[in-house]
Amino acid sequence: MTSETVHEIVSTIAERDGVQPEQLDPPLAAVVDPDALTSVLRDTSGYVTFQYCGYIVTVGADGTVTVEE
């Protein structure tokens, strides 16, 4: 997961919640380790799904990000 991917996840959720990205609680890094996620996605052609701030976030090995309620 690149810094752009992290930014996309945080920005999308903050926009949906009507808050600034730094106001999200907990911070994304408290829910998922960005380095570990990057490592997992680098070694697969699949995707990883996790919950964050009440949303279901899916990150694909190709860098796609989907945020669903």
Observed structural traits:
globular, alpha+beta, about 25% strand, 2 helices, about 70 residues, three-stranded antiparallel sheet
Which SSEs are present, and which pair or pack?
Layout: H1 3-17, H2 34-42, E1 47-52, E2 55-60, E3 65-68
Write a brief caption for the model.
With 69 residues, the chain is an alpha+beta fold. 35% of the residues lie in helices and 23% in strands.
Protein architecture, described:
This protein is α+β, with helices and mostly antiparallel strands and 69 residues long. The protein is 35% helix and 23% strand. The chain is built from two helices and three strands; from the N terminus they run H-H-E-E-E. Strands 1-2-3 form a three-stranded antiparallel sheet, with helices on one face. Strand 2 and strand 3 form a beta hairpin. The chain is globular, with a radius of gyration of 11 Å. The two termini are 21 Å apart. The mean pLDDT is 90.
Please state roughly what percent of the residues sit in beta strands, choosing from under 5%, 5-15%, 15-25%, 25-35%, 35-45% or over 45%. Answer: 15-25%
Within the largest sheet, what's the order of strands? 1-2-3
First CA to last CA: what distance? 21 Å
SS field, number of helical segments = 2
Uncertain residue segments: none
Q: pLDDT average, as an integer?
A: 90
Number of strands: 3
User: What is the approximate shape?
Assistant: globular
H-E order: HHEEE
Main β-sheet description: 3 strands, antiparallel
Helicity, in percent? 25-40%
Radius of gyration: 11 Å
Briefly note the structural class of the backbone: alpha+beta
